[in-house]
Amino acid sequence: MSRVLATTPVVGPKALPEGLDPERLPRHIAVIMDGNGRWAKSRSLPRVMGHREGVEALKRMLRLCSDWGVGALTAYAFSTENWNRPGEEVSFLMTLFERVLARELEALDREQVRIRFLGDLSPLPPGLQQLIADATARTAANTGIHFNVCTNYGSRAELVRAARSLAERAARGELDPSAIDEALLSAELHTAGELDPDLLIRTSGEQRISNFLLWQLAYAELHITDVLWPDFDQEALVAALLDYQGRQRRFGGVTSLP
Ligand code: IPE
Ligand code: IPE
Ligand code: MG
Question: Does residue 41's CB lie within 6 angstroms of at least one atom of ligand 1?
């Protein structure tokens, strides 16, 4: 039987699952990838096995977002507070980031992904910092999805850094403090140049923000799912998108914007 006449709308090169409106996809999705440890524990595995499986979920998510025409995906990989975890878990994660980036860079570049790492990268292992610098430079001119990996990222640290930078410019006489507005502050954040996320997904059921994108999420729609991050698959993403498309975004006004 021919499948050519399938009525599923097409966005970019790949078909969007039925029921989703291609005109109302979020332009930018942010995700708090939580629940790796619990996923492993439920299988009597060491926590770090959950992180390894979490990488597969992130690759899946990136591919789906890219295929469906979502413009940007920002994923929380390691917070400024995650240094408080046991040393072995932290070093496992750093090695994992390094291995995965080295292994996946070629394919990411081929698929036109533009990758950036958001956060204070200076405390990361030197080998990882080098890989990050290479990956960022190599993919900077790519025209596909913007893939932001928040690594040693904390929203409060990001805001403090922005405030300090503006204060230094003012102290040097380059900036009139009364000229500081939302656009100037936004431009000092790690996310400079990116649209604010339309949708925040948090897995594993926790109902909190955990120091993620406090400024940028001002008007994001929140989707919290009990699915643990390593289990997050196409079905879970479609559920998040359907939830998002069912919302009426008002931005403080009284009518829904188109
Ligand atoms: C999220 O999963 C991954 C990172 C924070 C690096 P967790 O490791 O927080 O998993 P849970 O919350 O303990 O289940
Ligand atoms: C948030 O998850 C950070 C990342 C997903 C990288 P956490 O597991 O660290 O958050 P809390 O401790 O439950 O708030
Ligand atoms: Mg957690």
Answer: no
**Residue 231 near ligand 1, beta carbon < 6 Å:** no
CATH class of 24-153+197-245: alpha beta
Instruction: Give the ligand 2 atom nearest the CA of 33.
Output: 5
| Residue having the nearest C-alpha atom to atom 12 of ligand 1 | 35
Q: Is the CB of 53 under 6 A from ligand 1?
A: no
Establish whether 67 is a catalytic residue: no
Residues having CB within 6 Å of any atom of ligand 2: 32-34, 76-79, 82, 206, 208, 210
Question: Where do the domains of the chain lie?
Answer: 24-153+197-245
Q: Model-level pTM?
A: 0.94
| 142 tagged catalytic | no
Chain centroid to Cα 141, Å, comes to 19
Tens of pLDDT, residue by residue, the chain (258 residues): 334 444 444 445 578 999 999 999 999 999 999 999 999 999 999 999 999 999 999 999 999 999 999 999 999 999 999 999 999 999 999 999 999 999 999 999 999 999 999 999 999 999 999 999 999 999 999 999 999 999 999 999 999 999 999 999 999 999 999 999 999 999 999 999 999 999 999 999 999 999 999 999 999 999 999 999 999 999 999 999 999 999 999 999 997 555
